[in-house]
Amino acid sequence: MAGDVFQELVFHCTDDRFFIEPLGSQQLLVIDRISADVFLEENNGQIPFSASRKTIYGIVGIIHLIAGPYLILITKREKVGTLNSQTIWRMASTQIVPYARSTAALTQEQKVFNDKYLSMVQHVLATPHFYFSYSYDLTHTLQRLYYTAEDFLQMPLHERADVRFVWNQHLLRDLCVQSEISPFCLPIVHGFVSIKQCSIGGEWFTWIVVSRRSVYRAGTRMWTRGIDPDGFVANYVETEQIIEFRDFRSSFVQSRGSIPLHWSQYPDLRYKPPPKIALASHEEAFIRHFESEVLCYGTQISVNLIDQKGVEGKLQENFKRLVQSSTKQIIKDKVSYEYFDFHHECRKMRWDRLSILMDRIAPQQEALGYFLFRDGVVMQEQDGVFRTNCIDCLDRTNVVQSMLAKRQLQVALMKMGILHDNQNLDDQYAFVSMFRNVWADNADTISIEYAGTGALKTDFTRTGKRTRMGLVKDGWNSLVRYIKNNFFDGDRQDAIDLFLGKYLVEPTEGVNKPCPLKETRNPRLLLLPLAVFFSLLMVFASILLPSDYTSYTLLSLLFWAGMTVSAFIATLHQGSQLVNAPKLCPVGTNSLLSPPSVG
Known about the structure:
5-stranded antiparallel beta sheet, disordered C terminus, 20 strands, 18 helices, alpha+beta, 3 domains, 13-stranded mixed beta sheet
């Protein structure tokens, strides 16, 4: 089919060239390791017999580091299933191959920094999960694909892909400039894909969930919040639920994304740093965001699940005000606001109270509809989406999205004749168990990609009720999130910025230009957490070691307890300097990213 990408290739490596040979084709992609030129040749047996040989399943792209370009290859893939009779794959293993045969020309410092950059790229590639198809456009929804013109479908995959969801678009830039190389350019999506063969009442159908993470304002949980001046929000994910049954196809699309205001919540060693809202105007970016969303999806039902008290309450009030007071006609006509204080309403494990929200937005869900066609004839369209958010757009968000998806599934299965009028999806225990687990897996995967841990509250998604074991698991995940967000996510944010091309490495770094990875933090600051540890150690020593407790022992205990408290307060005071912060694209360098506290 026109626009398809080569599925299986052989990678040949010599001292001066890479040869990439598609199976079943006479084309040969040649990369000169010295000049970095990329070109096509007819395969006339010019590959040297001495060249190394390896089967690969695609090219992720080319990234430029201090030592020069590196070629990223897919060396292992896993089949997820078929969508529209076309295979969807998960990227299981990659290999990064340097153009340069040696790093001898680099200084020792450059070698250290180059290795650091290389490990960043490897870290992103190891993050679950990257998906691709050689023939199906995984970046677009079923409804968008249906209404595309025939000439659009003849375009190469990477050209017609939705750039919001192509995670290797920066890495493909050296290849896609030449149209004849398009069959080697494989667009890759990051997020979650599940394809299940299901049966209800003896009727078999395919149930699919696809979550696509946006490349715009991509990053980690605490370092990337809110909106940017162009209207892109953090942790933006488009999730599509698809059903394939005989000649029926249905699609239901939802989105999630950070609260569309200029706000931040940078880690500072506190368990939950208060969010901060910028004093600058939010309206321009806010309007840009929703203009783009309305253009893509139609009507927007903004479901906000954050707390109504404290600083989160300030975010809620500002979000509500911008929606309700906007003079922009497109906002007035196409954007509505629904607020539900998730934690307050569902306190004391009363998660049954989510029915309050679901009942309230039921008429809106019915009005928005879903996309359905049969034998190529459209029976109905989806006229808008629910845009759901909580503070992280992870845990609470996924719970509500799964409930909306379940209600749409009930309607669609009845429309297709899989469920009858007197049947309820909740009575199909085997399918409902699968449904819950897939949506919990979706929550875990998106959470790992953004926050570094599995999602919270997945016990409700998996079982339909909140459990004490779920609370224990949430406590553990919260602790791991705290550690990662404070001490590891700066490097992870740098890795994402490097992978997506937000930061471009210069070959002179470490010689004519300082490398931003070089540590500039005052090493004496590290004495503060060491003082906390040592003082706490002395407190335990004062309690456990003496065989006889005297007034001196008591004074020693009080002294070291006071030292522990003082050192702890001093450490928290310097918390923003002690956390692992991004270095490639530093935050807090403009007023929108370094705002005053809401207080």
